[in-house]
Write a structure and sequence with these properties.
By secondary structure, the chain is an alpha/beta fold. 57% of the residues lie in helices and 13% in strands. The chain has 2 domains: 166 residues, NAD(P)-binding Rossmann-like Domain (Rossmann fold), CATH 3.40.50; 134 residues. It has an 8-stranded mixed β-sheet, sandwiched between helices. Helix 1 runs parallel beside helix 2. The chain is elongated and about 75 Å long. The structure holds NADP nicotinamide-adenine-dinucleotide phosphate. The site of NADP nicotinamide-adenine-dinucleotide phosphate has 26 residues, from helix 1, helix 3 and strand 6.
Length: 310
């Protein structure tokens, strides 16, 4: 069994290490995060590995995972260079290094001096590592980089019942942007929706109860029917007056929040302005879909001019 060091034992690092340990895929060697408390918490969660308080204390491992935040990957790879070189001098087989960022290519690790580099991005939200232990199977992992590393990582993720796809470095940024739009921005839309319900005097708990069945049904419809057939509501029906009233209501909300707030507390005024702006922008983006679903040219022109109004 190959051994694995994890640098950055946060949400993703500890979840993957725990699953690989449970499934006998990698022997978990060393764990490092800057805060000792974090590293020990990860060790308890994984149930294996040696927690170290300095990169230099990491034990020998054939495979190294750099699971620090994206902005820290390049500098941490550079910091690892002399350490990995020392480990490499003790063995003949070349060591491997990979990261899990969706947006960055494997080459961002070049400063480590390691030749066998890869990136492996699980299309999964590791918001809660405990839940991810159960939920990761079935997710897709996008692999990119040197064949020798992919040949290790593909079976490692397949053993966790993930599906692997292969990307070129030039595909990564747009590939990741696509998953951010569907996953992260869905969460942002939920938050914006709750703000509008709150403005209507409906508390978060009631709004969540009301939203859960329809949001889940909408997600299912998108996968079963595709976005054009899943879209319902005033835009598809061409209910121009309803859309105009909703925009007007959001503008009034923005005006009343900005006049009721003093200078030091204008956040909710800005937020309300964002609601109107988002409604217009998403409405515009919905028009081609609505047209595919049967919206008339005339209604489309009227809606377009409402969304374009200053
Ligand atoms: N979360 C997700 O849903 C998800 C999904 C797919 C891919 N990813 C990718 O997975 C990677 C890790 O993301 P994450 O969500 O797991 O982040 P995270 O929960 O913030 O964990 C990052 C870990 O790195 C440590 N760290 C930060 N800077 C460091 C440094 N300079 N040296 C050593 N350790 C450092 C942090 O602990 P200390 O602050 O104590 O150092 C923490 O344990 C990223 O590349 C991300 O793009 C994440």
């Amino acid at each position: 069994m190959l051994s694995l060091n994890v640098v950055g034992a946060g949400k993703l690092g500890r979840t993957l290490a725990a699953l690989w340990h449970q499934n006998g895929v990698f022997e978990i060697a060393g764990l490092f995060s800057r805060s000792a408390a974090n590293t020990h918490e990860a060790q308890d969660f994984i149930g294996a590995g040696t927690a170290v308080s300095d990169l230099d204390e990491l034990p020998h491992a054939q495979v190294w995972l750099l699971a620090v935040p994206d902005d820290q990957i390049e500098s941490t790879a550079a910091a690892l260079a002399p350490i990995i070189a020392r480990h490499q001098s003790l063995v003949s087989k070349p060591l491997m290094l990979f990261h899990c960022s969706g947006a960055l290519p494997a080459s961002v690790l070049a400063a480590s001096g390691v030749d066998l580099l890869a990136s492996a991005h699980p299309v999964h939200s590791f918001a809660d590592p405990k839940r991810s232990l159960a939920d990761l199977p079935g997710s897709t992992v996008a692999l990119e980089g040197r064949e020798e590393v992919i040949n290790v990582l593909e079976p490692a993720f397949t053993a966790l019942r993930c599906n692997c796809i292969h990307l070129s470095p030039s595909q990564k940024v747009l590939y990741h942007t696509g998953s951010v739009m569907a996953c992260n921005y869905l969460t942002v839309l939920m938050d914006l929706s709750l703000q509008v319900f709150q403005a209507a005097g409906i508390d978060n708990k009631s709004a969540m109860t009301l939203l859960e069945p329809i949001v889940v049904q909408t997600v299912k419809n998108n996968f079963a029917l595709g976005p054009a057939r899943a879209l319902t509501g005033p835009l598809v029906r061409g209910d121009v007056a309803t859309v105009a009233r909703q925009i007007e209501a959001l503008h009034q909300l923005a005006e009343s929040s900005s006049t009721t707030n003093n200078d030091s507390d204008s956040t909710s005024g800005i937020q309300a302005a964002t609601l109107a702006e988002m409604y217009r922008a998403l409405g515009k983006a919905a028009l081609p879909l609505a047209e595919k679903a049967g919206l008339s040219q005339d209604a489309r022109r009227q809606l377009q001019s409402i969304f374009d109004e200053p």
